[in-house]
């Protein structure tokens, strides 16, 4: 069924590839490493190529009276043993390594890139032929071959570096093939081909631009390596002969005076080292490897703050519901120094019941569920409210206290069973590890318990499954294993984040039946996150409908789904194409204009007002807390009027969708990592 | 339960907009691949002009492979694909673009189906340029195309990242329709969208179809969604057609056990009704998915089917007309009502 994760927005980043063209500086030039790399490389290249025009002395001009001089007004960088000006020699020597490395790059990419594009396009057989051929190149001993070539053609560095380029093209091909193949998986390539775009144009217009970053990173890194190789060859004497200057020979020369005139090493060594470092810094900046350090520490520092917030919240709240095993009150989750993702969420869960958090993507249901486990993403934390688990406050607990709870008292199953299991280990070792840790039993006892757990989640041939690895299991089987994994610590609360979204509908029905049986047999309490109202109707006793970070309606599943009171709930139900038994399919479905506003741009007053058909002037101003509606809550000031008038969220009329252009699209501000 | 409606064969006199005959697709090559069951096994159906046919199945049923074979993205092993009677089975994509301009596609994933580095305008103008419309005229058409799917025309200057999932899917639809095609393959166009956005896009597709008389091959995993948009439906399981017929008959009175399993498993958002459905489904005794491999000679649903007998293992049932739908089941008459 290959359904995409619907909670992409909840999971923070949404955009796989950033738009290539933006106004102003390219991103890599906004990083210090990138600025340094680009500036230095530009300087060295320009200075070297123009050296004959500006150099103060001829490179072979000797001033023996001034040999081995330190920097002075006459010789800015000093002189060598024959009194030749180092500044002039360094930059006169620069054009050879720079140009020959560039030539190596041109050759390497000139061969590797087209081969990678062809192999990615033409399918397996062509790819295998090309890959085998490049393996031959990789297998050749490069150093020996280079020396042999020099033996034949002499110290001519341009042809030597061109041959090195041919040999490097194999590894360039390797890296670029992977990238090209993954770019070709993208659907816009297929769309372009269906449009009839020719192979060359598909590659030029659609494939290559998406590979540009990798190409640039590779090129910058290889350029640095090329410089080192040229210098190394010259150091060994395979460079331009005296009196022609070369970086490698100058370093070799300086190494003889390392004790008597140590300065001699500094200018040449520094220019070479800086150039190589600059190439690598530029590569790093293009690749976007910004120092991520410093972010990790942030969560810790919020600990005391969170504790204070929680204490304040607990102090002002009314007495906790004694029957509830989990009570969440006024919970807020925010991006650190950024917008709120969830505000004022309250719900209670009785033991042995199933609560559904339902809503569209970006409404904060996953964030709410994850905060119960203390598993919020980096840079996101609970910013207020309280989570009472069996009377114990979870907000503000340290990571250590939280991890003692996780698995033993509160466990989680996630949307993608295949991602939750480690592909490297057998099911047996993935299950027995936690069993031994949680229950303190021996290896054979743990294996017995593992088999028992698998049988409990409806796996008939438990022994065979224990021996297999995750990739040998179907999606439904893998999700059963994940549920068994969650049960290893005998938890009392299970948080299930879209547990069936990635599964086929017949498999989904089996997993839901299994979860229900577990609740019935073990008295487990469950919080289910789902976007599917059908799943909620199937498994949940209580429902909290979330919209834009708030609970807009809550109550028992029957009350909320059979008689929705909030317009958003009405609209969601109207949008569902599964009509009741025996009723005809409507001509058009009910829909909600526009999209969920992203965090940070929630309107004041009712957050749904701008999309609501029943909204009035007073909906757009902040309103006081609303009284309970029946046994649950409804976050709508018009709820009594609407239920008195039997308001219905009507389906669209035929033709509505093409008659009225929507408002200009609002920029989608995804929360940045 | 409604009676099966509209059982008359659709448009027998006119040439079908799209016709697929005995389509077989095998992946890979070599002896191993020849021994494995094909991804698509002798599938035939046709779509009349202006008609929508829903292709329903779970993962691995081959529904997207059929879409790819129709579009020329996956060469079929045997069988034919005809567009307005013209055989396009082995035509290259380039030949197709020259000769048949009226087959287009909308993919499932609105994020990867638009090139993030190109403006909406560039994306929409690309197919027009290939058909000889260039310059201001192409741009004008692109703007008109965006307006026809409910987006402002000035969106041509923006990049895909500035749009939400539903808006991107509208753009993908605009790209498919900008050349005025007559047949559009919709490959799970709403599966990646949220419920309210899904409804918007489904309404839009229905509006466009009614307005332009488009023929849709609508690929989906959800029979409820297919029922909303389609007139007829084809139910696939492991590359074979299990049942086909008018969508009301297939979804309300299925004659194949797999269709019954598929329909019964889809949850409805009404707790009491869902409870009854669940009880009925659990009582029906369908086997667990993926528990055992089906036999190569018989019906692929045998390992999960509560009605399976000896004949189902040895003999593949042909499609036959049973009470208004065509079902490939030896025991179609015994299939219990939903």
From TrEMBL, chain A:
Superkingdom field: Bacteria
Keyword Membrane: yes
PANTHER family assigned: DIPEPTIDE TRANSPORT ATP-BINDING PROTEIN DPPD (PTHR43297:SF2), OLIGOPEPTIDE TRANSPORT ATP-BINDING PROTEIN APPD (PTHR43297)
BP terms from Gene Ontology: peptide transport; transmembrane transport
Protein family per UniProt: Belongs to the ABC transporter superfamily. Belongs to the binding-protein-dependent transport system permease family.
UniProt organism field: Geodermatophilus aquaeductus
GO molecular function ontology, one term from the record: ATP hydrolysis activity
Membrane topology term: Multi-pass membrane protein; Peripheral membrane protein
Subcellular location: Cell membrane; Membrane
This protein's name: Peptide/nickel transport system permease protein
UniProt keyword terms in alphabetical order: ATP-binding, Cell membrane, Membrane, Nucleotide-binding, Transmembrane, Transmembrane helix, Transport
SMART domains according to UniProt: AAA
Domain ABC transmembrane type-1 as annotated: residue spans: 94-283
Entry's transmembrane regions: 33-54, 98-120, 132-154, 160-183, 204-237, 257-279
Keyword ATP-binding: yes
Broad class of where this protein is predominantly found: membrane
InterPro entries: AAA+_ATPase (IPR003593), ABC_Ni/Peptide_Import (IPR050388), ABC_transporter-like_ATP-bd (IPR003439), ABC_transporter-like_CS (IPR017871), MetI-like (IPR000515), MetI-like_sf (IPR035906), Oligopep_ABC_C (IPR013563), P-loop_NTPase (IPR027417)
Annotated stretches, region: Disordered: 652-673
Domain (ABC transporter) ranges: 326-573
GO cellular component: plasma membrane
UniProtKB/TrEMBL annotation, chain B:
GO BP: peptide transport; transmembrane transport
PROSITE patterns cross-referenced by the UniProt entry: ABC_TRANSPORTER_1, ABC_TRANSPORTER_2
Coiled coil: none
SMART domains reported in the protein's UniProt record: AAA (SM00382)
Organism domain of life: Bacteria
CDD domains: ABC_NikE_OppD_transporters
Domain ABC transporter: 18-263
InterPro entries xref list: AAA+_ATPase, ABC_transp_ATP-bind, ABC_transporter-like_ATP-bd, ABC_transporter-like_CS, Oligopep_ABC_C, P-loop_NTPase
Single annotated GO MF: ATP binding
Keyword annotations: ATP-binding, Nucleotide-binding, Transport
Similarity remark: Belongs to the ABC transporter superfamily.
PANTHER family: D,D-DIPEPTIDE TRANSPORT ATP-BINDING PROTEIN DDPF-RELATED, TRANSPORT ATP-BINDING PROTEIN
Name of the featured protein: Peptide/nickel transport system ATP-binding protein
Phylogenetic classification of the source organism: Bacteria, Bacillati, Actinomycetota, Actinomycetes, Geodermatophilales
């Amino acid at each position: 069924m290959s359904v995409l994760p619907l909670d992409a927005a909840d999971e923070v980043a949404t955009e796989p590839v950033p738009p290539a063209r933006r106004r102003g500086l390219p991103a890599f030039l906004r990083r210090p490493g990138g600025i340094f790399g680009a500036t230095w490389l530009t300087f060295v290249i320009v200075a070297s190529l123009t050296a004959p025009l500006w150099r103060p002395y001829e490179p072979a001009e000797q001033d023996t009276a001034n040999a081995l001089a330190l920097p002075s007004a006459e010789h800015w960088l000093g002189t060598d043993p024959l009194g030749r000006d180092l500044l002039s020699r360094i930059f006169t020597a620069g054009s050879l390594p720079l140009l020959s490395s560039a030539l190596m790059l041109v050759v390497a990419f000139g061969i590797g890139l087209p081969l990678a594009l062809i192999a990615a396009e033409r399918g397996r057989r062509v790819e295998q032929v090309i890959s085998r051929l490049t393996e031959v190149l990789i297998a050749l001993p490069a150093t020996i071959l280079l020396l042999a070539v020099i033996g034949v053609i002499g110290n001519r560095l341009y042809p030597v570096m061109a041959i090195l380029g041919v040999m490097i093209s194999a590894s360039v091909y390797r890296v670029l093939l992977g990238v090209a193949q993954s770019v070709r998986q993208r659907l816009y390539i297929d769309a372009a081909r269906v449009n009839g775009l020719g192979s060359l144009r598909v590659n030029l217009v659609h494939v290559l631009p998406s590979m540009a970053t990798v190409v640039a990173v590779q090129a910058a890194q290889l350029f640095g390596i090329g410089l080192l190789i040229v210098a190394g060859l010259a150091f060994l004497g395979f460079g331009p002969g005296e009196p022609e200057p070369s970086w490698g020979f100058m370093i070799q020369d300086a190494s003889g005076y390392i004790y008597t005139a140590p300065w001699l090493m500094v200018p040449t060594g520094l220019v070479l080292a800086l150039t190589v470092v600059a190439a690598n810094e530029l590569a790093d900046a293009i690749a976007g490897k910004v120092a991520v350090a410093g972010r990790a520490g942030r969560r810790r520092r919020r600990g005391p703050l969170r504790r204070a917030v929680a204490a304040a919240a607990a102090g002002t709240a009314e007495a906790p519901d004694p029957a509830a095993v989990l009570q969440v009150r006024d919970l807020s989750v925010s991006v650190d120094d950024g917008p709120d993702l969830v505000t004022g969420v309250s719900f209670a869960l009785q033991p042995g019941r199933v609560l559904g958090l339902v809503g569209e993507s970006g409404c904060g249901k996953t964030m709410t569920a994850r905060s119960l486990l203390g598993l919020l993403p980096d840079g996101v934390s609970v910013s207020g409210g309280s989570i009472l688990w069996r009377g114990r406050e979870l907000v503000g607990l340290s990571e250590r206290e939280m991890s003692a709870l996780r698995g033993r008292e509160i466990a989680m199953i996630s949307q993608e069973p295949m991602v939750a299991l480690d592909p490297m280990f057998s099911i047996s070792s993935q299950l027995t590890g936690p069993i031994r840790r949680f229950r303190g039993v021996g290896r054979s006892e743990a294996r017995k318990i593992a088999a028992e757990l698998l049988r409990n989640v409806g796996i008939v041939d438990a022994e065979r499954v224990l021996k297999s690895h995750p990739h040998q299991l179907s999606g439904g089987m893998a999700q059963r294993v994940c549920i068994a994994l969650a049960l290893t610590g005998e938890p009392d609360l299970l948080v299930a984040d879209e547990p069936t979204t990635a599964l086929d509908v017949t498999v989904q029905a089996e997993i839901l039946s299994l979860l229900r049986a577990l609740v019935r047999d073990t008295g487990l309490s469950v919080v289910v996150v789902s976007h599917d109202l059908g799943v909620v109707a199937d498994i949940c006793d209580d429902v909290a409908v979330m919209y834009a970070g708030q609970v807009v309606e809550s109550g028992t599943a029957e009350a909320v789904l059979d008689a929705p009171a909030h317009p958003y709930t009405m609209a969601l139900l109207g949008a569902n194409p599964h009509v009741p038994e025996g009723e005809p399919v409507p001509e058009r479905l009910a829909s909600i204009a526009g999209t969920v506003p992203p965090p940070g741009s929630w309107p004041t007053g009712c957050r749904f007002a701008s999309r609501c058909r029943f909204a009035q002037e007073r909906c757009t101003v902040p309103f006081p807390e609303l009284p309970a509606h029946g046994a649950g809550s409804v976050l709508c000031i018009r709820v009594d009027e609407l239920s008195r008038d039997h308001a219905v969220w009507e389906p669209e009329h035929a033709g509505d969708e093409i008659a009225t252009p929507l408002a200009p699209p609002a920029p989608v501000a995804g929360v940045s990592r | 339960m409604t009676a099966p409606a509209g059982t008359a064969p659709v448009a027998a006199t006119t040439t079908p907009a799209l016709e697929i005959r005995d389509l077989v697709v095998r992946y890979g090559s070599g002896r191993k691949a020849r021994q494995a069951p094909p991804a698509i096994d002798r599938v035939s159906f046709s779509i009349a002009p202006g008609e929508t046919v829903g292709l329903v199945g779970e993962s691995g049923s081959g529904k997207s492979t059929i879409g790819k074979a129709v579009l020329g993205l996956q060469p079929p092993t045997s069988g034919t694909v005809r567009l307005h009677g013209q055989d396009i089975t082995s035509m290259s994509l380039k030949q197709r673009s020259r000769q048949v301009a009226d087959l287009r596609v909308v993919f499932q994933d609105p994020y990867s189906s638009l090139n993030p580095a190109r403006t909406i305008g560039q994306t929409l103008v690309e197919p027009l340029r290939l058909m000889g419309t260039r310059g201001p005229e192409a741009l004008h058409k692109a703007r008109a195309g965006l307006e026809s799917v409910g987006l402002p025309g000035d969106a041509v200057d923006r990049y895909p990242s500035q749009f939400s999932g539903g808006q991107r899917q509208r753009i993908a639809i605009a790209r498919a329709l900008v050349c005025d095609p007559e047949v559009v393959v919709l490959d799970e166009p709403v599966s990646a969208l949220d419920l309210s956005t899904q409804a918007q896009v489904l309404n839009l597709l229905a509006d466009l179809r009614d307005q332009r008389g488009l023929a849709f091959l609508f690929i989906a995993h959800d029979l409820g969604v297919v029922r909303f948009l389609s007139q007829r439906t084809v139910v696939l399981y492991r590359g074979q057609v299990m049942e086909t017929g008018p969508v009301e008959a297939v979804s309300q009175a299925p004659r194949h056990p797999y269709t019954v399993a598929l329909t019964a498993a889809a949850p409805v958002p009404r707790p009491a009704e869902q409870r009854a459905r669940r009880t009925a489904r659990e009582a029906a005794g369908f086997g667990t998915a993926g528990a055992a491999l089906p036999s190569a000679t018989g019906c692929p649903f045998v390992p999960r089917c509560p009605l399976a007998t000896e004949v189902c293992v040895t003999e593949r049932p042909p499609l036959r007309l049973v009470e208004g739908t065509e079902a490939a089941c030896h025991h179609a008459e015994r299939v219990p009502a939903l």
